[in-house]
Amino acid sequence: MRTAYAACLAVLLAPPAAGGAWLEAPGKGFAAASATYRQTDSGALHELGYYGTYGITPKLTLGVDLNQNADISGHAMIFARMPLRAGERYRLAVEAGFGGNHYRGQWALMQRTTLSYGRGFQTGKTSGWLAIDAAYELRNSGLAAAWKFDATLGLNRPGKPAPMLQIETYKPEGGQFSYTLTPSLRYPLPAGRELILGLEHRSAGGGSLGLKLGLWQKF
Questions:
Q1: Closest by alpha carbon to 207, among 175, 185, 176, 184?
Q2: Torsion on CA atoms 14, 15, 21, 26, rounded to nearest 10
Q3: Which CATH number describes the domain made up of 2-218?
Q4: pLDDT tens for residues 77-126?
Q5: pTM of this prediction?
Q6: Closest by alpha carbon to 152, among 171, 170, 173, 128?
Q7: Are 149 and 138 in contact, with CB atoms under 8 Å apart?
Q8: Sign of CA dihedral 137, 101, 97, 87
């Protein structure tokens, strides 16, 4: 009985491939690279992203977050994640990030504070996870502020393609609310890798559709 309980608990608390409220084990890490191609009213755009985390201690994970939207805008940040709660039913973590953002090559300081919630679940023979992140950003050396609220729901299907749904929202102070909705499939690859293929709908700029291709790697 104890063995069965421990196995079930390990499934429920096992971290998804991407962090959120989960920390990396010391000496272990995760990297994700993505490319998105979208067609807008003003023409075709491409967006590149990189996200990586590495466990320093059981209570400290360091990471990097890079993004470039065509030649228009982007950011580069480093961050530290620390646990607030690591219970049997759910986890909480806080993350502090610092770096810079740019618009058409003009760089300024950027800061981000994030509160993350995560939990695993088991339904019959299916397991998965839910991750929710609430973030407050200061961009342009503190002159522009925004709230972000993101959620990811994923299922685990070892050795088989697995569905995942991501919702990202963005609300600048004094600006318009926008959201991005991305349903995708995770395809398992050798050596702890996963190929991510998704269709991304973004409401900003009158709305656009994009094809998103990503690669996840555990190490």
A1: 176
A2: 100
A3: 2.40.160.40
A4: 999 999 999 888 899 999 999 999 999 989 999 999 999 999 999 888 88
A5: 0.88
A6: 128
A7: no
A8: positive
